[in-house]
Design goal:
alpha+beta
Length: 185
């Protein structure tokens, strides 16, 4: 009986790693540089419509984190995509989709993700609550978010180690900027 449980455990761990790691358009989170990403985005028919540093709060921006907003990528119903880079490494991709009151768009994207990546680790149906589906891989998380009262839905790919680095960097930049002596005071 113990041997059977060990075999089932090993098999489930093997299957968890058998699912391919997400790489939208071949972009590797935690590896792809900004210039490579822009080249791939352009080859896919996308075009950069804006770019800039990450806003932390008010007029404080993190110069270590740069985002580019893109339109025209070949993803059904995609409004925009934002690609975020920490020290020139892709760490986050945010897709924005329209969302109706029926939340049917959530189900369509959810079913596509489930077919590709299997059952999510977390799931909350968007019925009188925010819809959430979350898949976890070694160092990448995918989140599908459908806020209950919102005209937009979001699909986020995130490299978790770099995301933690971004949080630390945000705190350091904010601390530095808010403790500077203000001219004229």
């Amino acid at each position: 009986m113990v041997l059977f449980i060990v075999l089932i455990s090993l098999l489930s761990n093997f299957l968890a790693f058998a699912v391919e790691k997400p790489e939208p358009f071949g972009l590797k989170l935690g590896i792809t540089t900004k210039s490579t990403a822009i080249s791939i985005i352009n080859s896919e028919g996308g075009r950069v419509i804006s770019q800039g540093y990450k806003k932390i709060k008010g007029d404080i921006f993190n110069p270590n984190v740069e985002g580019i907003e893109v339109e025209g990528l070949p993803v059904d119903n995609l409004i925009t995509a934002t690609f975020w880079f920490y020290k020139d490494k892709l760490y986050r991709i945010e897709y924005t989709f329209p969302l109706s009151m029926s939340k049917e768009e959530f189900n369509v994207v959810y079913n596509q993700l489930r077919a590709k990546y299997g059952a999510p680790k977390k799931f909350v149906k968007p019925r009188l609550a925010d819809g959430v589906a979350e898949w976890r891989f070694q160092d990448v998380v995918i989140r599908l978010l459908a806020p209950w009262v919102s005209p937009s839905m979001y699909l986020i790919y995130e490299h978790t180690p770099l995301s933690r680095e971004v949080e630390k960097s945000d705190q350091e930049v904010f601390q530095k900027e808010t403790t500077k002596p203000k001219r004229g005071l």
